[in-house]
Amino acid sequence: MFAYLMIAGYLLLLVGVTVIAHRKTKTLDDFFLGGRGIGPWMSAMAYGTTYFSAVLFIGYAGQIGWNFGLSGVWVGIGNSIIGCLLAWLVLAKRTREMTGKLGVRTMPEFLEARFDSRNLKIFSALIIFIFLVPYSASVFMGLSYLFEEVFGISYSLALALITIFTLIYLVFGGYLAVNLADVIQGVIMIAGMLLLLKSIVWHPEAGGIIAGINKLHSIDPALTAPIGPPGFIPLASLVILTSLGSWGLPQMIHKFYAVKDDQSIKIATIVTTIFALILAGGAYFLGSYTHLFFDAVPLENGKPNTDLLMPMLINRVVPEALTVLIVILILSASMSTLSSLVLVSSSVISIDLAGTLLPKLSAKASLRVMRACCAVFVLLSLWLATARPGFILTLMSISWGTIAGVFLAPYLYGLYYKKATRTGAWAAALTGLAISLGFNIALNFSSAKVPMVGSLAMLVPLLVLPAVSLVTQDVPAHVVSKAFPVPSEN
């Protein structure tokens, strides 16, 4: 009963935040960008809580920790250094300045303005909407697994409850509600992770840090090696996919559009990096400790399922009084990720496609369309999650790799390389899409190969775009001059 009351209290707190935000949300810009006035702490927490969801704690931590042992922590370090520190240093200021100069609010709008291509805008919008649905579904699935294991709530009922609350929280509150809630959720996530580390690492079966590492070594020396059993390439692929991949994800880049000023960027860079180190580093470290509590991967429908490792470990090890806080930790991470996914995905219909096809749509009508699209996207994610398609990690990795493969090169070069051409951007985007879908289909969506495919889908377009740009026609000078401080002269 105590657990249910705590979760109800947390949800009511978010409803209160939603009510406050709803009163301040009058326009589509308010709903989607918070008026471009989001401060450093809100921006940092929004980025961090969007980055890490139930998929980290349920899917990635369990599978990577089980397969790679302690070397899985390299993924968390990569998330902190590449996915947060370098992302903010390289992308945030330039993105904020250029999107403000161009007057754009979304990734498709940016690509249209930067490369002078309406078709690229439409293509980008479709990619975002199609591939963020399975990403969102993976978050729904992770939460439902957790509630099913810890509270005995059926998977279907858990999905229904999460869907209803997500609709209320997002449709009425918009981006301001998301950011206000992210501060609360970020604090809960840090506190929950520290308590989770204490409960698992210092449990009698683990015995602490040193004793736990020694026990892992006695089980299999490879579990404590600098590079775990699958090898360097699989580990490096995971680091690239989950760290560099964040540079090309529209829901992450969205945070840079809305940040208030340069000073906010400096503070947010530090806060986000520390946040990621605690959350991601802690999660992967705990994933390696699953070997101390289980002799084999749990079965679901007669097949091994690493997605069940962390929920079962939490249910087995964490004291009942703390279990609810851990559940709220994961719920907090997932609510923030879901809200960002839904906002960005819905924007491609209400802003990008509707704005292109119905240019005379009024501001109030656009806001109504945005809210309706949010509801449609959540329901599509629910429908896919109900089917429980394979492992969470595989589902998310394919979506993550495909989206980042399409957008990373055009977005990054669009920010910095004046000579990037429309044809180069198209070639890079289509290359990323072809590699991700083609190789995954050829490999029968092998969960072991998905990270490597996703990494290739991101890295190869980084070579394709400049190569194609060298032999194709430049974007008109007046278009380039709108994005950069001075017109391109050579």
Describe it.
The chain is mainly α and 490 residues long. The chain has one domain: Sodium/glucose cotransporter, CATH 1.20.1730. The chain is 77% helix and 1% strand. The chain contains 19 helices and two strands. It has a two-stranded antiparallel sheet with strand order 1-2. β1 (299-300) and β2 (303-304) form a beta hairpin. α16 (392-416) runs antiparallel to α17 (422-442). The protein is globular and about 70 Å long. It starts with a helix and ends in a 7-residue tail after the last helix. The relative contact order is 0.18.
Question: What's the total number of strands?
Answer: 2
> Which strand order do you get reading across the main beta sheet?
1-2
Say which CATH homologous superfamily is assigned.
Sodium/glucose cotransporter
Low-confidence sequence ranges = 486-490
Give Rg in angstroms: 22 Å
Through-space gap between termini: 69 Å
Q: Which fold does the CATH topology refer to?
A: Sodium/glucose cotransporter
* Whole-number tally of structural domains: 1
What's the total helix number? Answer: 19
Q: Which series of helices and strands comes N to C?
A: HHHHHHHHHHHHEEHHHHHHH
Q: What summary fits the major beta sheet?
A: 2 strands, antiparallel
Return the average pLDDT rounded to an integer: 82
Give the SSE layout.
Elements (H helix, E strand, L loop, with lengths): L1 H23 L3 H6 L6 H12 L2 H15 L4 H30 L4 H9 L2 H34 L3 H47 L7 H11 L12 H12 L6 H9 L3 H27 L10 E2 L2 E2 L4 H9 L2 H38 L5 H24 L5 H25 L5 H21 L7 H20 L7 H7 L7
Antiparallel strand pairs: 1-2
Helix pairs in contact: 1-8, 1-14, 3-8, 3-11, 3-12, 3-14, 4-7, 4-12, 5-10, 5-11, 5-12, 6-7, 6-16, 7-8, 7-13, 7-14, 7-15, 7-16, 8-12, 8-14, 8-15, 10-18, 11-14, 14-15, 16-17, 16-18, 17-18
